[in-house]
Design a protein that fits this description.
The protein has about 500 residues and is α/β, with parallel strands linked by helices. It is built from 16 helices and 23 strands. The protein has 2 domains: about 280 residues, 3-Layer(aba) Sandwich (Aldehyde Dehydrogenase, Chain A, domain 1), CATH 3.40.605; about 180 residues, Aldehyde Dehydrogenase, Chain A, domain 2 (3-Layer(aba) Sandwich). The protein is globular, with a radius of gyration of 25 Å. The structure holds nicotinamide-adenine-dinucleotide.
Length: about 500
């Protein structure tokens, strides 16, 4: 792993300081028609990192028209799937070739630490493209229904059209590629609207698409704020699909905005996922898993196990072991290869996380670790463990920061009741050596994904998504093609089957 020295950083900062990060529309890097820009901040200092073109309805309209034209008239949906496959492979190679630069930009822009971004997220971005490159030739496969000797039905798939891809700020590179790769493999064209707090990796991706010679208009990137650029994208009649990852409340707004033009949605929304630890679990591994799954990615992680439920007989000891580890976590600069947790994305988000914890303290939460800012500069917040009661606001709502709330449970029934008592249902983690109980809980806990004796280890062919207010639909593997394609049904008679003869009968 490359370690970034001060000179490298200064050079990167200087390069960013002198320019406006542009949109990418119809194969060209352009600024907004109005010339408006906004600032993206470096979360480690809150100093401006770059100025970014501020897109509005006008830029969105241009981007959608370009995507529409590329879909209706361009080569992309018409070329043999194996050619699209080669483009996607090329994008994966370019992500790998630019991995150090991509990682540095992503760390500086999001505050996520190098070991996670360079070690995990950037390789995963390339893997997303490689995975869907391999799947490109199977994207349109269908089923056959050989009904009997008289009828055959079969299905096949076609691309849908133009997709609007809207991503959040926590892991923008990985999430953009997670949407772009299947969208493109299935022959669609798209407009990507990255989050305004972390816009830089989408610009790097656009440069990679340009370098890979993707036909103009196939991928467009419009930078800007949710209400100004996201909303017009959702409302645009030229867009059929909206793949959105972000907050549940935003998802509800988007659903209303897209109702007039009847969009098809894939929603990956918020979470408040539980980890259930039983007394018979392998406790040292459970500590590792729980600590990693809340504090990795600064706790700004949709599948974070932000609620820790522990069987009462081991509760005091187990929670103290978790708190002890939390106190020892290395909080540091995103580009410090030793750092495990970096600064939160934005001063507003830091204030929100802090407000959650302060309110919980007032309501009687006991602070077992952290519970305060770190340092004078930047948005650093200490890894925090709180003992709370079920039903408190901090136990019910997504904090999206390095804050774990802990509660004891008496038995399996109570554990399930607490686990299911939130409006979210994204992920769950069960730690037990009792095989039957583990599988029973996998069924009973209301979550789209359950990991047993494991942190969130992903396998790309499996479905990713949530229940309840954590989302609609599943992405991943061939599940993404269910969203990014239309399945058509064709019926063929194999004989001269009887057809009713209206108007032929004698009166
Ligand atoms: P957010 O909902 O505030 O913003 C997400 C994106 O939506 C941004 O690009 C934003 O500009 C855009 N947006 C905002 N208002 C819009 C509108 N009216 N119309 C169209 N677009 C609009 O979310 P965030 O704060 O960026 O991200 C954090 C949230 O994302 C958390 O709730 C987290 O759980 C969730 N998340 C979910 C997953 C998952 O897979 N389930 C993954 C990562 C993050």
């Amino acid at each position: 792993m490359q370690v970034y020295d001060a000179n490298f950083l200064e050079a990167l900062r200087a390069e960013l300081a002198g320019k406006v990060v542009p949109h990418y529309i119809d194969g060209a890097f352009v600024e907004s028609a109005s010339g408006e820009t906004f600032e993206t901040l470096d979360p480690s200092s809150n100093r401006p990192l770059a100025r970014v073109a501020r897109g509005r309805a006008e830029e969105v309209d241009r981007a959608v028209r370009a995507a529409r034209k590329a879909f209706d008239e361009g080569p992309w949906p018409r070329m043999p799937a194996r050619e699209r496959r080669r483009y996607l492979e090329r994008v994966a190679e370019l992500i790998e070739a630019h991995a150090d630069e991509l990682a540095a930009l992503e760390c500086l822009d999001t505050g996520q630490v190098l070991r996670i971004i360079r070690g995990g997220q950037v390789p995963r971005a390339a893997a997303n493209f490689r995975f869907y490159a391999e799947k490109a030739e199977a994207a349109f496969d269908g089923r056959s229904f050989p009904v009997d000797d008289r009828f055959l039905y079969y299905t096949f798939r076609v691309p849908v059209g133009v997709a609007g891809l809207i991503t959040p700020w926590n892991t923008p590179l990985m999430l953009a590629t997670w949407k772009l790769a299947p969208c493109l493999a299935a022959g669609n064209t798209c407009v990507l609207k990255p989050a305004e707090w972390s816009p830089l990796s989408a610009w790097m991706l656009a440069r990679i698409f340009a370098e890979a010679d993707l036909p103009p208009g196939v991928v467009n990137v419009v930078q800007g704020f949710g209400e100004e650029a996201g909303a017009p994208l959702v409302a645009h009649p030229g867009v059929q699909l909206i793949s959105f990852t972000g907050e549940t409340t935003t998802g509800k707004i988007i659903m209303r905005t897209g109702a007039e033009t009847l969009k098809r949605y894939s929603f990956e929304l918020g979470g408040k996922s539980p980890a259930l630890v039983f007394a018979d679990a392998e406790l040292e591994r459970a500590v590792d898993g729980v600590v990693f799954q809340i504090f990795s990615l600064n706790g700004e992680r949709c599948t974070a196990n932000s609620r820790l439920l522990v069987e009462r007989s081991i509760y005091p000891e187990f929670v103290e072991r978790v708190a002890e580890r939390a106190r020892r976590i290395r909080v540091g600069h995103p580009l410090d290869p030793e750092a495990e947790v970096g600064p939160l994305i934005h001063p507003e988000h830091l204030a929100r996380v802090e407000a959650f914890v302060e309110e919980a303290k007032r309501e009687g939460a006991r602070v077992l670790a952290g519970g305060h800012r770190v340092g004078e500069e930047g948005n650093y917040y200490a890894p925090t463990v709180l003992e709370v009661r079920p039903g408190m606001r901090i136990e019910q709502e997504e904090v999206f920061g390095p804050v774990l709330v802990a509660m004891p449970f008496e038995d399996e029934e109570e554990a399930v009741r607490i686990a299911n008592s939130v409006r979210y249902g994204l992920a769950a983690y069960v730690w037990t050596r009792d095989v039957a109980r583990a599988h029973r809980l996998a069924r009973r806990i209301e979550a789209g994904m359950v990991w047993i004796n494991s942190h969130n280890v992903r396998h790309l062919p499996t479905p990713f998504g949530g229940m309840k207010e954590s989302g609609i639909g599943r992405e991943g593997g061939e599940y993404s093609f269910g969203f990014y394609t239309e399945e058509k049904s064709v019926m063929v008679p194999l004989t001269d089957h009887p057809i009713p003869k209206f108007g032929k009968e004698e009166g």
